[in-house]
Structures are given as C-alpha cells and as structure tokens.
Amino acid sequence: MTLMKLVFSPRAPLKCASLLLLTTALAACQSAPSARPTAGASAPKNIIVMINDGAGWGTWDAAAYWQYGSREGTPYADFPQRFGVSTFPLNSSGQPTGENTQSISYDPARAWDTTEVPAPDLPFVGYQYLASVATDSAAAGTALSSGVKTYNNAINFNNNGQPVDYSALWAKQRGMATGVVTTVPFSHATPAAFAAQNESRNNYHALAHQMLSQGHMDLIMGAGGPGFDVSGKPCPATPKPDSPDGCDTQWQYVSQEDWQHLHAGTVVGGNPVGPWRLIRSRQDFARLAQGKLPADRPLIGVAEVANTLQQARQDAVLGADASRPSGTKAIDSVPDLATMTTGALEFLKRRSDQGLLLMVEGGATDWAAHTSSCGTEWHYGECGDQPQYGRLIEETVDFNKAVEAVVAWVEANGGWERNLLIVTTDHDNSLPMGTDAQRVAFAPVVNHGKGRMPGLSFRPTGNHSNALVPLWAKGVGSERLADRVKGTDPGYRDHVGLNDGRYIDNTDVAEVVKAAIEAP
Hints:
Strand order of the largest sheet: 5-6-4-3-7-1-8-11-2-13-12
Strand content: 5-15%
Shape: globular
C-alpha cells in the first residue's frame, strides 16, 4: 500500500513513468483480499454514483410525468435518503486565483424571493439571484468527486493550482475496480472529474491521455471518438469545415496518437496495466452487458457517434418518430445508457473481488438544457426556434432506465446491504419550471399524463443556475448523508416538495463516498 500511495499522491499529478515501474504492485493491490477492509454494516462492497448532468428539479419532474405518469413511478422515489444539494463553486473565477476564501454561497431567502422586477427573462428577484453566478460541470464534478470547492474549469485542481486526490484514487488504493460511463465525450468535464486532474476542463487530449495511461481506471465508456457524425453515420474522408454533423471536430476529445494505440490494441503512454480493449458497436456493448466479453484487461467503449449518444442527432437525417418526446427517430446503432451501465457493472465486478466504484453520467441532459435561449432574439437561427424540451426529457428518461438497471443489478448482487447508490445531478441548468413560471413565481411543471408532453418552460438564460438540486440515496452507508445536513430550505420544501427542505452540499457526496470506501 505504501507504493500505491506514492503512485496516487494528492500533492502531485499522476506520473505514467512511476506507474510503469509499479505494475506489479498495482496488480497485487487490485487482487489482494487484504487491500480493503471486509464489508460490514457500514461498508458497501460496491459504490455507484449516478449524475444526470444539468437536471434541475423541473427536468426530473417533466421526465417522470412523461415516462411514468407521476413522480412516484421513478426508481428512486422511495429511496430513504432524500436531500436538496447546494452546488456553488469556490468563486466566480475561471482560473486559479490563490485565494481560498469561499466567495459564493446559497441563500434560501434570496433564492425564493418572489418580488417582481421589470425584466422579461427573469421577472422575479429569486430567478435573478439564482441565475447570477453558478458552477460549471468541472467545479461541480470536482466537488462531487474530491470534496474540494474550486474555480470553474478545474478538474480536481484546487484554487492554488495544485492537483487534489479524488474518489477513483481512494477506491484504487483499496483495490477496487473503477469506471466511468457517460452519454457525452468520455473526456468531458464530469467523467474527467472522476478520472483525471487538470487545471482546465478544455484540455481534452491531456485528460483523455491521463484516463488512458495511468493505470487507475478499469473501464471508460462514452462518445467522442472519430469516424462517425452526430447521427451515427460514417464521416467522409475529408470532413467539411464548420459542418453541423460534427465530423470536423472528431479529434477534439482524444488525440490521434492515443486513438491509434486504442485501435491497434497497444499500450497508451506506458499504462502499467496493459493495453485497452476497444469496443464500438452496439452489439459489443450488448455482449458486455451479457458478460460475454473477457475482463482480462481494461476496457473502453466508444459508441459509433460523434459527441452525444442521441441528443445532437439531426432530424433531417433520421426522420420522424411521433412516439418520442422530441418527435425525432433515435439512432439505432448506438447503445443506450442502461446497456452501457449494466455492461460496466458486469465487467467491473470481475475485475476485482474487492468491489467497484462506478460513476454514470447522463451528460447530454445538460446539452439539451443549454438550448433554453433558443428561439430568443439573440439566438434564433443558431440553435432552432425553440428549446429542446423533448430531448431534455428523452435524456432523463434514458438516465432513469439506467437507474432501473442499477437497482436490478444491486438486488441481484448482494442487495442494499452490500451496495451504495447515490442518484443526483451536478447543477441546475436554466431553471426548468411550468409553463406559467414567467408569470407565476416558481410555477411547477404541469403533469399531462404518461406519454404526453408536460407543461414545461425554461428561464431563457442558456446557462446554469445556483438552485438546489435533488439527491436520492439508498444502501449501506447512505445514512451518512443525514449527518451532513447544512440547513433547511422552506422554499425548496414548499415549491419543489421532494423532501422536508433539508439540504447538503455537493462536497458532502465525496466525503460520504470516501467514508464508505474507507469504512472498516
């Protein structure tokens, strides 16, 4: 274990060369029964954190109404631990400032202030307060994974510009198998926050290289590979510049050199645990979920699509499907999140007998929410004549199905006495509420019944907010969340109604995960 601590030092970035010298030690730590305390009343063997990126409370409601007809139908509706979560970053900077003073907070009184103001986009004081300064996915992901508040853009870096330890490293030190799954590029902010360290979320190639070369990840799944457009069609040999099909940015998220190693089955950057097995086809993802692919080496699954599994697909390419909330036919050549998640769990449980840590992200929910200003005077024509309400719902429906798959897997693999599941999001995006919310403060989403579009509207900001977001948890160790309550928010209780108003902070998720990993 001493060697492992040298590899995963919280005081310095991970070094591939050091890991290469310690291949034997890493392999031994992964398999040694003594590497992790025996699971007991407070120690789950498996820990799953699920993040529906950018989902405000209205997003969860809209999807639940369309998918199940009510909130009560969701797979997490009866989870015993239910809290609001504050998500603010350390400050409003986009780079390290060297100051560690917390300059942003959450004030329940200001958040729910219904005083009207003469502003058509944000007509209530509470809306303006919540939309003023908010976290990005990098700072929020860092808080959820490391327990450290930091500046926006940071991936497990603090405000002094130093790397910090995070959940996958804690898990690996205990000999657990580790993985990340997402519906967006695998080196994007949230998966990167559970698998890498960097001063900026925009350094995609460096983040991907860390994830692929340092030996601390057993599984990576997502989009962001080359060769296919946003609708799942093969890219031309010479993509057109500024093409809306995404082919001109196919090397944005992973370098050509690293991809060549993945494609050839050769070691990336001296990875001490050997080469990756690359899968891409929907059929191979299905085989993985069925336990039909070996777990003898790390596995990366990159779907045959450009940057999101479904959200960025083009209507004109795929055609209509009236049964879907968006009215657009789905890409049939990519896996859904439930299949990917089941495959990840089945794979990771064979990688180590010491348990697993898996982060699953519904990343494209946030991408759909960012269209909230579409149709406004300053965005009309750039992203359509209205926000993507249908795709917002579709992405959360897909996420809910993944939660259902995890619940089924948990019940078949030791039950809740052996597993911990946390379901949440990293931040709100665009304050989704009911259709009357520009006239009536905090008007709720209107339920029109299962399979029917609910009454939904955004605040037309195109950006995140500082609102509390929901969290549900179940399993051994989930009770620790109740010990970390920061306060009670009457507005959240009365307007959202998902719990009694108690809320925690996003850093508490990391602290509870760490306690679960280290529990005797």
